[in-house]
Amino acid sequence: MKVAILAGGFGSRLAEETEIRPKPLVEIGGHPILWHIMMIYSHYGFNDFVIALGYKGEMIKKYIIDYAALNGNLTVDVKSGKVRTLGGFHPEWTVELIDTGIPTLTGGRIKRLEPYLGGETFMLTWGDGVADIDIKALLDFHRSHGKLATVTAVHPPARYGSLGLEGEQVVAFAEKAQLQKAWINGAFFVLEAGIFDYIEGDDTQWEKEPLEQLVQDGELMAYKHTSYWQCMDTLREKYILEKLWSSGDAPWKAWSGG
């Protein structure tokens, strides 16, 4: 089963980093967040990736091409130009890198990937978020209901602490506790090929008409993920992820090696 990753947006809210690189290449612990996302899927045995490129897509192409060579030792036959890699950590990935246009919206990017997804069930996520999600459990849930689409629903981490007050007396204090009332789109979709019929073209935003129509048709189900999830929309969120990775206890790191 193929995993589609949207990696073509401008990342304007992370402009401190994205002026010089696409957001999926912003690093957490010395690795692009794109690598972390791919490692999550790879841990569960999903190694066939189709990446939708746009803004600074050539940098993602170069990263993928260079990854195997730079992650280990090399023997170079200068005369023939042949290069052999020695040692290092090399995931069993196959990666298709597809130019989907710089101004193309999310729905349009998905539509442009259709020829590369084989008309079969596929997974989809954005190139800027991680979670300790059980991908096989997500897939089992999708297969159990028979609908066209599954979205992973998550509770967003609160940006600020909360105070419980009785008059002017503080009776409870919670530092950045999760907001348990609201579910949001955490990406990590599982989709059937029928979803392409819901997308008009490049100017379609996936989160608007396609998902709204899937809801109206009763074809969208939610897999509730109640533990760790974090997107990287801002520099503050990058620092949160960096701190967790540096601690050696990053919740999304289910794999060994790397």
Written overview of the protein:
- 26% of the residues lie in helices and 28% in strands.
- Strand 11 and strand 12 form a beta hairpin.
- It has a single domain, classed as Spore Coat Polysaccharide Biosynthesis Protein SpsA, Chain A (Alpha-Beta Complex).
- It is globular and about 65 Å long.
- The chain has 258 residues and is of the alpha/beta class.
- The longest helix has 14 residues, at 57-70.
- Strands 1, 4, 7, 8, 10, 13, 14 and 15 form an eight-stranded mixed beta sheet that branches.
- It has seven helices and 16 strands.
- 35% of the residues are buried.
- The mean pLDDT is 89.
Task: Give the arrangement of secondary structure elements.
Blueprint: E1 2-7, H1 15-18, E2 27-28, E3 31-32, H2 33-43, E4 48-53, H3 57-70, E5 73-77, E6 82-86, E7 94-99, H4 106-112, E8 122-126, E9 129-131, H5 135-145, E10 149-154, E11 162-166, E12 169-174, E13 184-185, E14 189-191, H6 209-216, E15 220-225, E16 229-231, H7 235-246
Parallel strand pairs: 1-4, 1-8, 4-7, 10-15
Antiparallel strand pairs: 2-3, 5-6, 8-14, 9-16, 10-13, 10-14, 11-12
